[in-house]
Amino acid sequence: MTKIQTVTNAIINQGILPLYYNADETVTIDILKSLYKAGIRAVEYTSRGESALSNFTKMVEIRNAEMPEMLLGIGTIKNLQQAEEYYKVGADFFISPGFVPEVAAFLIPKDVLYSPGCMTPTEIITAEAAGVTFIKLFPGNALGAGFMNAIKDVFPNLKFMPTGGVDTTKESIESWFKAGVSAVGMGSKLVSKDLMAAKDYATIENETKKVLEIIRTLK
């Protein structure tokens, strides 16, 4: 099995891709451990702050030592330099807010999953032509589940995951899965700024377990 397929399967199997960023290295690691304890085996860390690269490097170190099954992805990749930096420190997969051709050309030949954000059929066609197989529908709250339902038959060979606006409720998650997505990306609705600030890792773990259980009942 290819590495791209392995990562794709891991995300689809859990049905959710948690994503977060925190400037503090310790908080970053503690959240990762909470998600792991909840049953998560693929997570996206967003490259949005000055400490993102050093924090992610530490995440890889801790993962290698304590949670070898965990796949670590990096999000908000907007240019080739970022992709190269995170590839060097061991990112398992890469996610962008939009399609970046140079990033696709760098990663896909290396058998590394690249999931770009797309919000039009033209963008999806362009990404598919570049070898992308896993599309991030972004922003999900602007597109809505109806968009997925309308395009799914046009792209039978692609997997889709909305990010942005997906809530932790059964109603929200179910609407997307019924429309045909393979997983949902979930950031602040799951790992909120308030929970991070309070270092309430127990709630993060419990809420993640609830979402995983909702997804299990839907499959």
UniProtKB/TrEMBL annotation:
Protein name: 2-dehydro-3-deoxyphosphogluconate aldolase / (4S)-4-hydroxy-2-oxoglutarate aldolase
Organism listed in the record: Chryseobacterium arachidis
Family: Belongs to the KHG/KDPG aldolase family.
Pfam families: Aldolase
Stored InterPro entries: Aldlse_KDPG_KHG, Aldolase_TIM
Record keywords, A-Z: Carbohydrate metabolism, Lyase
Bilayer-spanning residue ranges: none
Family annotation (SUPFAM superfamilies): Aldolase
